[in-house]
Design goal:
The protein is mainly alpha-helical. Helix content is about 75%, strand content about 0%. Helix 4 packs parallel to helix 7 and helix 5 packs across helix 6. The termini are far apart. The relative contact order is 0.10. The model has no long low-confidence stretch (mean pLDDT about 90).
């Protein structure tokens, strides 16, 4: 692993655990086993390092979704979307990357909020590009109602976010029960055939 990647992974862990304000470059350097000035060989500032972590997490999340969709492209849209719900909500609620993602989306540092929101808007557009064909295919196969694609995307993102917070907030068994209920209600509301 390159030194810049080691720094990135240490920063991800530290930002996820301590927040932006609670993270110092000295702490990140200590995690890697280097001196603080060495970080400046790879990142200009704490803010630069933070946004490198944001980019890393977004890319990791998109890669996770793309791999899942590509690997299961032969499955029907209902099964594929359910797999996405299961995998993405587990990823967001249990991995360091997910904890970082949720924390900084909800509670961005005030001085970085505008820049984070701009990055998140681009990230959502990239996510749209992965999900639009799935919903279009479901409409083409006559599995779901012919609803506006944006409405389908918006409600699907709310489903993912809501389930993620339920998994954070409750015991595993309660969170999984809530996830199943939310998925069934979502799918039945857009499906042409109620299961």
């Amino acid at each position: 692993m390159k030194r810049s990647e080691e720094i990135l992974h240490a920063a991800l862990k530290t930002f996820a655990e301590k927040g932006y304000e609670g993270t110092s470059l000295s702490t990140v350097a200590s995690e890697v086993g280097i001196k603080k000035p060495s970080i400046y060989n790879h990142f200009k500032s704490k803010e630069d390092l933070f946004f490198a972590v944001v980019q890393f997490v977004y890319k990791e999340y998109l890669k996770e979704i793309k791999t899942l969709i590509d690997k299961n492209s032969n499955k029907t849209p209902d099964i594929l979307l359910k797999l996405v719900v299961d995998n993405v909500t587990t990823f967001l609620s249990s991995e360091k990357s997910g904890i970082f993602y949720i924390h900084f989306l909800l509670f961005p540092p005030k001085n970085l909020k505008e820049k984070i929101n701009k990055q998140f808007s681009q990230f959502e557009k990239d996510s749209d590009d992965l999900f639009i064909p799935v919903f279009q295919n479901a409409i083409r196969l006559n599995l779901i109602k012919q609803l506006p694609i944006q409405d389908l995307l918006d409600s699907f993102y709310c489903l993912l976010d809501g389930i993620t917070f339920q998994l954070f907030s409750y015991t595993r068994s309660t969170g999984l029960r809530k996830k199943e209920a939310a998925w069934q209600i979502f799918w039945n509301s857009i499906s042409k055939k109620v299961v």
